[in-house]
Design brief:
Layout (H helix, E strand, L loop, with lengths): L2 H21 L15 E3 L14 H10 L2 E8 L5 E3 L4 E2 H4 L1 E4 L5 H4 L14 H8 L5 E5 L6 H10 L6 E5 L2 H10 L5 E5 L2 H5 L4 H7 L4 H4 L3 E5 L6 H10 L3 E6 L2 H7 L5 E4 L7 H7 L2
Helix pairs in contact: 2-5
């Protein structure tokens, strides 16, 4: 083969090698894998009940049912770590304001989904769970590293099983630098198809091209994109566990089994929980 014919092959090989390097997760000294159970999304909740999402009642129900759980944390105006998903209060409290525009005490005047439940402190949720269920903690990044510092300050005192995850690679980088022993996961999705985001940054995030900086221990990916290339390469080539979010039916759960290792569910109860959670989750 002539030298000029080798150039495209060499270029292609270099690109492929660079891509694999970029998406590679942590390979050496990985923390122990999380317990293989189903994880209740924001607790075992129903927003039309007295146990809406990310509330003490929803977390109690998840513990009682034997599920792990996923939850979201962010900061209040006075630097308290609270458990709530949205950055604003419109959907859950019908208040047109950001969560961090209020102190924790001020937030207690707002009910969640017209129930008797209020936005809980992260510390109180951990006290309730008390190591009886594994936790996936999503850090909602807004500015600076304060959420990482404050959340980990609380988690340092917790003796139960947990891991952290975030859409923002800076959170994973912070943990890589300060707490490398803690299991960390990169959240992602097909932003262009499922969220309408076309900015180049979201292509980078979709294809997990920041992994070479953060070296995550697992990939949490939107279950609607079960065939996502980078996610599947991380799983098959590098043995990196894959977490599906958010499963909303038994049919969807069954269709995702060959593409994910852990499953975060909402709005139904997975069938045959003890056996299937142990074998497949």
């Amino acid at each position: 083969m002539k030298k000029k014919n080798l150039i495209p092959w060499a270029s292609g090989a270099a690109l492929a090698g660079g891509y694999l390097f970029a998406i590679a997760p942590r390979v050496h000294k990985r923390p122990a894998p999380m317990k293989k159970v189903y994880y209740a999304h924001r607790g075992l909740h129903d927003n039309d009940s007295e146990a809406p999402e990310n509330t003490m009642a929803a977390f109690q129900k998840a513990v009682d049912a034997g599920y792990g759980m996923e939850l979201d944390v962010q900061l209040t105006k006075d630097g308290q770590v609270v458990v709530i998903h949205d950055m604003d209060l419109k959907r859950l409290c019908q208040v047109d304001a950001e969560v961090d525009s209020f102190t924790y005490e001020q937030l207690q005047q707002f009910s969640i989904c017209a129930s008797s439940q209020r936005i809980p402190l992260f510390r109180d949720v951990l006290r309730l769970v008390d190591g009886r269920a594994p936790l996936i903690v999503e850090l909602k990044y807004k500015k600076g590293s304060r959420i990482c510092e404050k959340a980990q300050e609380i988690l340092q005192e917790y003796r139960g099983e947990y891991c952290i995850e975030s859409f923002y690679p800076g959170v994973l980088l912070w943990y890589k630098k300060h707490y490398p022993e803690i299991c960390r996961g990169q959240l992602s999705m097909n932003y262009q198809r499922d969220d309408g985001r076309k900015n180049a940054v979201y292509y980078i995030m979709r294809f997990l091209l920041t992994n070479f900086i953060t070296r995550p221990d697992f990939i949490a990916y939107d279950c609607r994109a079960m065939r996502a290339l980078s996610k599947n390469l991380c799983r098959r080539l590098f043995g990196c566990p894959s977490v599906a979010w958010t499963i909303r039916s038994q049919e969807q759960l069954d269709s995702c089994r060959g593409y994910y290792d852990y499953f975060i569910f909402e709005g139904f109860l997975p069938q045959d929980r003890a056996k299937e959670g142990q074998d497949h989750a």
